[in-house]
Structure formats: structure tokens, C-alpha cells
Please model this.
Amino acid sequence: MSYDPLQLPETLLKEIQRLAEENQVYIEQWLVSAVTEKMEAEKVVRLLQSYAEKADYNRFDEILASVPDKEPIPDDQLV
Model:
């Protein structure tokens, strides 16, 4: 594992230190976790975008049009 020092704004570094202490981990561990979470979120966005590119919106509209126009059952209503 390599490490290149980061140039972080002081306010950001203080917040990272606070969060690391709050989570009882080293700053490095907190940063690795944060970067990993961001990378995974980016992967999910790309995956959803690829699904959207393949979507057949005309078929989607057809399916929705086939659903009967009825009141929802009591436990299935939007609040």
C-alpha cells in the first residue's frame, strides 16, 4: 500500500479528525472507508445509467397502461 500525502483544507481535516474519533478509527482508516464508499456509489450510478440506456420506455408505458385504475387497498396508500 502506498501513501501520498494529501493537501486538505484545514476545516476539512478537522471535520475528518472529528468523524474518525467519533467512529473510533484512525484518520487513514476513515479516509479509506470514505473513498471506498464513494467509489461504490459511482459504480452504482454507472450501473443504473446502463440499465436506463437499455430500457424500453414504450414497453414500460404499455405495462403501466394495462394496470387497472382502482383505489389502492388501505394499507397500500401513499401518505
Q: What stands out?
A: The two ends are 50 Å apart (CA to CA). The CA atoms of residues 7 and 13 lie 9 Å apart.
